[in-house]
Protein 1
Amino acid sequence: MKLERQCPAVVAVLVLTAVTAACSGASRDRTLDLSRSDGASPERGAGSVETWIAVFRTEADPRDMSEDTAEVLAIVGGAIVVSPVACFEGLPADLRLDSYLLGVVAPTKDALDEIASQVDRAVIFEGQVRTMCLD
């Protein structure tokens, strides 16, 4: 019975430790790799998918990015993502959770770099994230 009460606290400490370790490396180069592990990585959450993302722009209203969205879509097709920032775990803390992002996604860093290089836009963040909003 006592062990059952302590488990949530232990899991919370492990998750916090892993997130802190991952974020400390991300602040140097604005790239986050969730696959890095120091032995205390969190379990993969049910209902989430890990993917690589390159973010080009964020706005409070996604309609403010309509022109850019159309241009990126014409270049990368199905690799485009326009979603709430809150749908991704692992983005920089300075991106407002109530805003939307425009970017591209890929299953690997190499594939992401290839796709992002086709888009003539500055990348404000690149890294591996967890997608929390699934269709």
Note: The first strand starts at residue 31 and ends at 32.
Protein 2
Amino acid sequence: MKVTLGQTEKLLKENLKFKMFPFSMMLTHLKEIYAKDPSQPVLEKCTADINAFLEKYHSIMAEDYAIIEKM
């Protein structure tokens, strides 16, 4: 699963709860970066970071995938 720019923007603007704590921590960090500079390049970098995380931990993130897919 790969998130789109639109899904990333929603992830960075909404306060969703995820089961996997490291994913939530990463989102908190990315939200801070995006809040300081909500430009297209920053959004693209955040999308790449989220996709890299999801690719690496896909086997243990089934519940969190369900939340993201509904976006």
Note: Residues 5-69 form one domain.
Protein 3
Amino acid sequence: MAVRRVELDGDYTGWWCEMRADVSARILIDLESGKADRAMSAFGRLVLAHNFRGLDGEATADVLDAPIGALMQAVQRWSEAQTLDPK
């Protein structure tokens, strides 16, 4: 399985997550659904490992407990690096 490491900056400098480089059609549909709950759930399924912290500053097991700003930066960085090959 291909993995992409995403590193954050700004308020989240030093934070990183390892995400699946490949996505299923179902995950892509959920990411692009326009519904926050579906998109965030799909994002959570892409993250394999991370060092994100919760709003209390403590390490969090579930990436979805991290600040939304960190999640948005991570998904943006991941999506910028993604290329879908129609072959």
Note: Residues 3-81 form one domain.
Protein 4
Amino acid sequence: MKWYYWLVIAILVVVGISTLVPAPGSPSNLIGYSSVDPAAPISGIILWVIAGAIYWFGKRKEKKP
């Protein structure tokens, strides 16, 4: 896979994790605690699914001649 696929995957994974960081004073999210992103579990999962799809498409493209 090209280096830019890995860069985008790493960025999406880090941003997905950063949405779960606790932030006092923020509104409660769907899990029930205050985090940086009020839609924390859903947005993190969406970012990780996109990262997985980029990985899958990159590996798939690598196999084609």
Note: The CA atoms of residues 21 and 35 lie 5 Å apart.
